Amino acid sequence: MALDATFWATIGLVIFLAIIAYLKVPGMLAAQLDQRAERVRGDLDEARRLREEAEGLRTEYAKRKAQAEKDAADLVAAAKREADQLVAEARAKSEDYVARRTALAEQKIGQAERDAVNEVRAAAVDIAVEAARKVLAAQADEQTNAAQFQSSVNEVRAKLN
Fold first, then answer.
1. What is d(CA 154, CA 132) in angstroms, rounded to the nearest whole number?
2. Cα–Cα distance between 109 and 101 in angstroms, integer?
3. Per-residue b/e over 22-41, b at no fewer than 16 CB within 10 Å?
């Protein structure tokens, strides 16, 4: 058996492996790998928990968004109803105003008609009194004439009032 380089390389390898086994390097490597695996597992658990929390928040925000949209739609509908009501009230007030103004105008027209009729009657009475005075003056003497005229005027005034 020759002591060549292969033999010494094999002996060095065996000694190296014995030292590694004596120093418990494989156990240390296994422990480090186990620690790393445990850290990775913890990170995965944390990521899973954060994902579930994020999904819960997303669901909650989706519900809030839907509620906000519903509230906004309700506000728009309420504003529309209020605007329609205000328009209806304004229309009713304007119609009432027009009706009151029309009634007032009709009252003024009626009053003007009554005033005109009364003026015509008064003028007719004045003309009739004057005509009666002239007729009676032609038929009676002055003293009888004045007495009859005064009684006629008093009688006409009493009937008119």
1. 13
2. 12
3. eeeeeeeeeeeeeeeeeeee
For residue 47, what pLDDT is reported? 95
Three-state secondary structure call for residue 13: helix
CA 79 and chain centroid, separation: 2
Question: Three-state DSSP class for 102?
Answer: helix
pLDDT at 145: 64
Task: Reduce the DSSP state of residue 138 to 3 states and report it.
Answer: helix
- Of 150, 128, 158, nearest to 142 by C-alpha is 150
Q: Residue 1: is its pLDDT beyond 60? A: no
Residue 78 to residue 67: CA distance in whole angstroms:
16
**Mean pLDDT over residues 94-116, rounded?**
91
pTM: 0.41
The two three-digit tokens of residue 68, written as one number:
């906000």
Q: Name 129's Cβ contacts closer than 8 Å, sequence gap at least 6.
A: 152, 153, 156
Among residues 136, 135, 127, 134, the alpha carbon closest in space to that of 156 is found at 127
Q: How many residues are recorded in the chain?
A: 161
Phi first, then psi, for residue 2 (nearest 5°) are -95, 145
